[in-house]
Amino acid sequence: MEILEGERKNSKIYYQNGYYYRKDKKATESYGGGFKCKDEFCRSRATSEPSLALVQITPHNHLPDFEKKEILKLKQSIKRAAETTSGSLRDIFDQETASNQSAHHVSFGMMESTMYRRRRSVQPQLPANCGELDNSLRVNNISKFLDGTNFYKGYVRINNDYAHIFIGKTVVASPTDLHVDGTFKVVPRMFYQMITFGYILLDHFIPTIFILMTRKTQELYSLAFSKVAELVPHLSPLRIMTDYEQALMNTLEIQYPLAEISGCWFHYVNAVVNKCKHLGLFGLLKLQVHSDLKKWIRLLLCLSLLPPHHIQPTLGNLNPNLFVVSLSINDFAKCQSLMTYMETFWIGRIGSNKISVFGCPRRTNSDQESFHASLLKRIKIAHPNIWLFITELRKFAEVQQLDKVRLECGLQIRRRRKQKYVLNDRKIRVATENLANGRLTSLEFLQSVSHCADALFNYQLGVSRINQPPESETVSSFTQVQIEPSQPNSIPPQDEAQQLNVSIQRDVAIMQNTDDVAIVQNTFQLGENLHSFTKIVGVTETLRVVDETNGTTCPVCLENTPNFATVPCGHMDYKEHSNMEQLIEKNIGNQLCLAGPLIDGYLKEIAYRGKKEIVKWKRKYAIKKLVITIDQKATIEKVFDPWRLQGINYLLKRVYKKKKVIYDANGFAIDGTVQSLMN
User: Fold this and answer.
1) Is-contact 54 14, C-beta < 8 A?
2) CA distance readout (Å), 594 to 483, 525, 569
3) At residue 59, does pLDDT exceed 50?
4) Dihedral through CA 75, CA 80, CA 81, CA 84, nearest 10?
5) Average pLDDT in the 144-164 region?
6) pLDDT score of 33
7) Of 79-88, 147-156, 629-638, which gets the smallest average pLDDT?
8) Is the separation of the CB atoms in 584 and 591 below 8 Å?
């Protein structure tokens, strides 16, 4: 006999040989047996032996069901997981049923209410307000560590504002660096924020004090921090880093007068970048012609790395008149507004002493932000149940206690920092030493470290560095057909030309005034002799035309006006003109760019990835407008696959809605700006 958990809490089901029994409350000796079949239409009875085996008294009227046992076990594991683990009920259900063979017999709709009741059954009653929360925390064991010590230390109150204080067992005597920051999304709904105190131990952040607050006023901060000072009297840091919330910084200055208060460099950079967005400077920053503007803003972002007494004089030397020369009058006024913001808010209101992180071993509180993100990931839902939140916070505090012991034993508890951050830190330290020794001026210091803020700057700008392929890959992509730059009238040797006697279908892009680019499809046959007068130019930089004749006549026939084109690879090519047969007879042949596969791949990206890939491609090749032009129906049906037509139609109809599209007699789109070239 095997005992299983029933549908209701504390109920039991007895299983043996494919049959399921429950206790018979009406059973007597005269009635016979102490167990009856769980099937309400079956009158089978059984009794138990000392060996815990069931002895059937009356037979069953149905067949045994062996699969139901696994279903009951699955339900039991789901309900138990809802009691003992946090997170959303749906995630728990999915995790428990992921690898179970009986999962198709159980749905989330069947189990949701049961799971919720099981979770609530192991938690105290939810408090109606913060006053009831204090009473519940003192009575229940939910806020106690495994050794019985209390995680909850009390609360303070001013009017209807509360601050509940929790302190872990990881507090050390007189930490040198203290980080203080708040988080909002992870806290229960009856509170507004949670303030976290953490210190740096052996170059690792250890959170230790947590304050749940209903508001963030300076009066409530003062009461809460005074209570913390009573509970932890030896907490006297030398440096405190926080964000730039004025009430929080003022309270910390009063509570810890001997500590040096500084703001987080990350928060400073983020605020200045958001101000640039607000002023409308980001649209200019995305244009390559305004690179001087980007360099100037990068200097402003790194002002926080200077000593306090250097910040204001250096800001005065960063006048945009001296650094930005490519802007219009209206755009230059935006730069002046940014300078006014820097002077009035950061220098006048915040102060250079709080901005500067010069000499600080840690210039940001990113570790604290990471802790808050980890806590949210652990709880898995925003604004959770108060008991769920306190339970997970207590478990997290216990983990921090173990991490502290591991650190003291010389173990590594976190991943190593990424190499790029280590290099950035090293460059800033070297520049700081050179500035302190007088080897660099303040402006030279900013120029040497200005790239260190690029990660956040480029992220906000929406620009990511283009990954260039390794040199070996770049070379191999051109080894199949080598194109050597030569004079227009030069003819390659006969043996080399014969190797290129193949039939190639090509796509070329017609450029007019370097603004409009049209992808035109044509099909040609290569003659026996082919020479190339193309030149490879700036493949990853910009799309340019190289016209070696620098004139208005075709360099091939020296008679007609040339119809020339460029393709995204940077090669220049010529379109078929009236006397092509004459050129073939002269063994000059048709001039054809051999980079067609690049365009094929480009159109494929358009079809599969849509507008985002187009934007990336445009950034890479610095093209402002793009129009797809198709001229011959027969050629289209022969050459273009359906996915390529899909990409072309996407460009014509959806991406460039403002571009005027003209349709020819056959119903194919022709761009008006290049129509004359196609006739």
Assistant:
1) yes
2) 8, 13, 10
3) yes
4) 170
5) 90
6) 58
7) 629-638
8) no
Which two tokens mark 40? 């309400």
| 3-state SS class at 365 | coil
**152 beta partners:** 166
The C-alpha atoms of residue 283 and residue 277 are separated, in whole angstroms, by 8
3-state secondary structure of 402: helix
Cβ-proximal residues to 399 (8 Å cutoff; 6+ apart), any chain: none
| Amino acid of residue 420 | K
The pairing of strands 54-56 and 177-183 is unpaired
Amino acid occupying residue 292: D
Q: Quick check: 604 and 644 in contact, CB under 8 A?
A: yes
- Render 547-609 in DSSP notation, one character per residue: -SS-SSS-TTTSSSPP-EEE-TTS-EEE---TTHHHHHHTT------S-HHHHHHHHHHHHHH
The C-alpha angle 382, 383, 388, rounded to 5 degrees, equals: 100
* pLDDT higher than threshold 60 for residue 364: yes
pLDDT of residue 572: 36
Is the pTM higher than 0.90? The answer reads: no
CB atoms within 10 A of CB 580: 17
Residue 409 contacts by C-beta under 8 Å, 6 or more apart in sequence? none
State whether the Cα torsion 582-585-588-590 is positive or negative: positive
Cα–Cα distances in angstroms (integers) from residue 500 to residues 76, 145, 512, 531, in the given order: 73, 79, 30, 10
Instruction: Report residue 153: phi and psi, to 5°.
Output: -115, 5
Residues pairing with 505 in the sheet: 523
Which carries the bigger pLDDT value, residue 630 or residue 388?
388
Separation between Cα atoms, residue 405 and residue 414, nearest integer Å: 14
| DSSP states along 403-437 | HHHHHHTT---SPPPPHHHHHHHHHHHHHHHHHHT
Nearest to 24 by CA among 52, 4, 43: 43
pLDDT digits 0-9 by tens, 478-504 = 233 332 333 333 333 333 333 323 222
Question: Which strands form 260-263's sheet, in the order they lie side by side?
Answer: 152-158, 161-167, 204-213, 193-201, 177-183, 239-242, 260-263
Angle between helices 596-609 and 642-650 (to 10 degrees): 70
Using DSSP's 3-state secondary structure scheme, residue 350 falls into: helix
Name the 3-class secondary structure at 468. Answer: coil
